[in-house]
Design brief:
Blueprint: H1 3-16, E1 20-29, E2 42-49, H2 53-70, E3 81-84, H3 91-102, H4 107-117, E4 120-123, H5 129-138, E5 145-152, H6 165-175, E6 179-180, E7 183-184, E8 187-188, E9 198-204, H7 207-216, E10 223-231, E11 240-242, E12 253-260, E13 265-267, E14 271-278, E15 281-287, H8 294-299, E16 306-313, E17 319-328, E18 332-336, E19 347-348, E20 355-356, E21 363-364, E22 370-374, E23 381-384, H9 397-401
Parallel strand pairs: 1-10, 11-12, 15-17
Antiparallel strand pairs: 1-2, 3-4, 5-9, 5-10, 6-9, 7-8, 12-14, 12-16, 13-14, 14-15, 16-17, 17-23, 18-22, 19-20, 20-21
The structure holds zinc ion (ZN).
């Protein structure tokens, strides 16, 4: 079951029992390249202020009962975990959380840390969810965004989502860039394409902007509930800066600078591939088909161009490009036949026979080719994938350009 929905139901139950939440619930996205993960690799956490052991026991019972009731445990990919922690934030916990967002951690590591700090864990099936649950508790948020999620009534699950598209365009017009990723090439991008309970999600900088946006969206189906999460989405928290290509490892995400070392080429399926190198080594980078028009920019790269690439390494060791900054375009040249005295570009007269003018018939036996700079269809600066291909954690350029929006 959608973790955010379980969280929303749990919180309603806890509140109806008079329990108080401290701050907003948090939606923490973990390493998008971890091989064992759920689709969005998200986990949620929240803080409760409880005044006695009896209330604590009651809260735990409500949470566990709800998780058991709502989890789709017959789905082989569903391995929920719940963690309870009473105590201060520790350095260990924060470091563990960052590792879970950027690298790989094992269930064993999560369990060892939980034991060390005195966190209580509950595993369902293989219980891998414990990894994310513990990370959601400990994740620092030097930068953050918010997401408002509206949920559907159960009888609408799996049906086409009915949202007035014009109202979403208007909302985007009125609230962007305080909200973002609402549209993709003019089409609605706030609705997911999976049969989950989410009707739509609006991403933004502040809760106020999200509530304002929500008021503008005309839903043509009932909304069961709405929840706002504080989140690490769109902060680039998954990316580690690395200065050696040779040090790059599978299943991790990086910001890496290098020089384009091959002409980009298109492979079957429409993916665009090129090589990037630095003094330490060389690696393959890809803009995959779902990145759509972003590929047009990648295809224009040429050997010698200096770029910074943002993205993660999949199981084949190829870096999936999410974003790139072109630092320097290396001038590219072509070599043309010389011009005739009459001004016309000459043609080859045959192997080792020099050139012949197609207009006046003039000949040249030994003349150098003319070096001509090729115009580039690319400018220095940032390029990013479209909204539809953006990973939850990727920071959109609108947040990079407006530094006041990046809280980190
Ligand atoms: Zn001529």
């Amino acid at each position: 079951m959608c973790t955010t929905y379980v969280c929303a139901v749990v919180l309603e139950k806890l509140k109806s029992c008079g329990m108080t939440l401290k701050g907003e619930p948090r939606l923490i996205r973990l390493n998008p390249f971890a091989p064992y993960k759920t689709r969005g690799n998200g986990a949620v956490s929240f803080r409760l202020v409880l005044d006695n052991n009896q209330t604590i026991r009651r809260a735990k019972q409500i949470i566990l009962d709800t998780v058991e009731e709502l989890s789709q445990l017959n789905d082989p990919r569903t391995n929920p975990g719940v963690v309870f922690y009473q105590g201060p934030m520790t350095r260990d916990l924060q470091e563990y959380s960052m590792k879970t967002v950027q690298c790989m951690v094992t269930l064993e590591e999560a369990e060892n840390l939980a034991q060390k700090i005195g966190a209580e864990i509950f595993k369902y099936k293989n219980g891998r969810g414990v990894i994310g649950a513990l990370a959601a508790i400990g994740c620092p948020l030097p930068d953050n965004t918010y997401e408002l999620i509206a949920y559907r009534e159960v009888n609408n699950y799996g049906k086409v989502r009915r949202i007035n598209e014009d109202s979403v365009r208007l909302m985007d017009h009125e609230t962007y860039p305080e909200t973002f990723d609402n549209l993709d090439e003019g089409y609605m991008a706030i609705t997911p394409h999976t049969p989950c309970p989410v009707l739509y999600g609006i991403r933004g900088e502040t809760k106020e902007a999200l509530y304002r946006a929500q008021e503008m969206i005309r839903s043509e189906e009932p909304i069961e509930r709405v929840m706002v999460f504080l989140t690490n989405q769109h902060t680039d928290m998954h990316l580690q800066a690395i200065d050696r290509i040779a040090g790059i490892e599978k299943y991790q995400c990086y910001v890496v600078k290098g020089v384009v070392n091959s002409n980009p080429h298109v492979i079957e399926g429409g993916h665009v591939i090129f090589n990037l190198k630095d003094e330490s080594g060389e690696m393959e980078c890809a803009a995959y088909e779902p990145t759509k028009r972003f590929r047009d920019s990648v295809r224009e790269l040429a050997p010698g161009d200096e770029v910074t690439i943002y993205g993660g390494i999949g199981n084949k060791g190829t870096l999936n490009v999410e974003k790139m900054e072109i630092l320097h375009l290396k001038p590219q040249y072509q070599y043309l036949n010389p011009r005739c005295d009459c001004g016309k570009r000459m043609k080859s007269a045959g192997k080792d026979k020099g050139y012949k003018c197609p207009r006046c018939g003039g000949k040249l036996t030994d003349a150098p080719k003319e070096k001509v700079e090729i115009a580039r269809n690319l400018d220095e600066g940032f390029y990013e994938v479209p909204t539809s291909a953006r990973r939850h954690l990727s920071k959109p350029l609108v947040r990079i350009r407006d530094e006041s929006k990046s809280k980190g």
